[in-house]
Design brief:
Length: 102
Amino acid sequence: MLEFCKTRWDAGHNSNVNQFLPIADYLRESQNEVSFYVMRPEGDLQVATARLVRYAQRRLRQLQSKESTAHFEYNDGRLVTEFTLEASRSETGRLTVETSCH
């Protein structure tokens, strides 16, 4: 879902991430972690945990999973104005993918 939000963001449709973040925040169940579910071909369900990092105002600043880290910046109206998504570093320590759109 996060990758879908980034694809839509890059296409100029910012509302998806502004809808996704409150849902992720709600599903955290009083912790700063949320589960991501991915259904692969042939019914292979994969579950991953993502860590939520916040600003002092309690807004989500980062979503960190094993595969990627998303960063968010907000305007005064609480809408995301900057969204970057980076792939996690490989075993060699090199960053494999980075996309950004302001």
